[in-house]
Amino acid sequence: MVLFVVKKKSSVEKLSEAPNENPPIENDSQKISEAPTSPAEEEYKTPLDPPTESVDPNHVPYLIIGAGAAAFSAYKAIRVNNPTAKVVMVTEENHLPYARPPLSKDLWLTKAKSFMGMKFSKRKEEVPSLPIYFEYSALYTDLKEVTNNKRGGVAVLMGKKVIKLDADKKKVILKSGEELTYDKCLIATGGKPKNLPLLQKASPEVKKRVNLFRTVDDFNHLEEVTQNAKSVAVLGGGFLGTELACALSKKGQTNGMKVYQIVPETGWWTKVLPQFVSKWMSHQVEREGVEVIYDDKLFSAGFKDGQLELELLKGRLLKVDQLVVAVGIEPCVELAKTSGLEVDNQHGGFRVNSELQSRSDVWVAGDASCFYDIKLGRRRVEHHDHAEVSGRVAGRNMTGESKPYRHQSEFWSDIGTNVFIRAVGITDSTLPTFGVFTRSQNKEGNTNSSENSKTDKNSQQISTLEKKDNSDLEEDLDKGVIFYLKENVVVGVLLINIFRDLLIARLVINDGAENEDLYEVAKLFFPHPKDDLEEEPTPEKEKPQISESDKTQDKKS
């Protein structure tokens, strides 16, 4: 294994309802409709015990506003600590709780017609896959049954919106005028996709062809409108925009659809990645067939001859059938205005303490929470992993625990089929970074090496001398780990094509690795070449040739 190291100075020194078993298919599109039913659903629906004496049908012991990953995780934690708990979720969507990551990843890559079998995984290694929807519809019941059944359960009120929360009276008011009282309440309202003002003010014909992306309904709509589209533009260079651009480009290989991605930055996710890694990632996106337009923005949008006309700031004119807007999300904090809840001015989201509590008997979890991290300061995180774990902590605290939230959440992304990224902590490209990478193989099957690489005879460390542009490194990166430092302390770790658990990364962040040799720390993330071949077997002719210095290094690591 050939390793090279790249260090970058900071800017300061220079001056991160699920499908039916057989959903309807239109024009070969894949639609998610209602939540799945299990073969034994009718059996599950039979109460284990007869209902108890009628109670207040509008009183909920555990009320959860929202029905996403944080909400469902909280429900599970509540039921673990209190098996007879009565839980009610209220959601604006007309779907039962589901996971969002597959909507921009796995679902676009599969050719299956039935979403009942649709699976996704947080990692590309061999692990049990998870269904898109968290549970069969048989798990859920209606409000009346859950309040009357002494064994408890969970109900989901779909298509309902909470417009006010009265923390003193422990009461919420729905948009329909209905009222619910509660003992404990969790706010898990998540976030909503941002849009550009110029698109919000555009003509009706333009608006009809502008697609925001967040929900199952958004997936269904985009999948349908791109069936016969000849061209589509994706606005945004973040993970969501890039995942969708690559997914749509994959679809374009079958229907001839051209995909453009408009990125306002000079490279791919420049706010997170060091510059040369960002350029390398840009090459990977382009290899997926996406035409990426960097360092440009949307100036105007019109409609002519049945197509959108997108004029960019630098003068280029794109004519496309559909436009996907992926420019980030904003936390859903509308309740703050009507409920007297505090919103963080810097990060957004409801401010909570270390136990995720906003007011007495009111907790917040997921994208909408702004919490205090004992290691990294006050933060707001928009990741699936954070939603799950913060929801679990909030749920436990709703049952009487006082557990602080200390989890360093991860985020992950699949860029096409060849690049997998995972990260934890603060990943900000303005921070000093220290990266260690392995090189890919050249056409002859040998491991590439830089002409500026050298071997330290004492440590057998192979490093790359600093270059201003790192141009010779952009094409042959294979795997890598990047450490993000603040005052010489590691505050974030990003992994490229390393499919191992992030426990090591979290331990490094918790420890800080101050004054540590980060090259030696990086070795913890790289498996021995022999182990690597066992996990990812390659034909005999494609096995890399390991030099003597590499073998010595591998033995030491």
TrEMBL record:
Belongs to the FAD-dependent oxidoreductase family. Pfam families: AIF_C, Pyr_redox_2. It comes from Lottia gigantea (Giant owl limpet). Residues 437-464 have a biased composition (Polar residues). Its cofactor is FAD. It comes from the Eukaryota. It catalyses: A + NADH + H(+) = AH2 + NAD(+). Residues 538-557 have a biased composition (Basic and acidic residues). Transmembrane segments: none annotated. The keyword NAD applies. This is FAD/NAD(P)-binding domain-containing protein. The lineage of its organism: Eukaryota, Metazoa, Spiralia, Lophotrochozoa, Mollusca. Residues 8-54, 437-470, 529-557 are annotated as: Disordered. GO terms for biological process: apoptotic process; mitochondrial respiratory chain complex assembly. GO terms for molecular function: FAD binding; NAD(P)H oxidase H2O2-forming activity; protein dimerization activity. Keywords: Apoptosis, FAD, Flavoprotein, Mitochondrion, NAD, Oxidoreductase, Transit peptide. Residues 394-511 form the Mitochondrial apoptosis-inducing factor C-terminal domain.
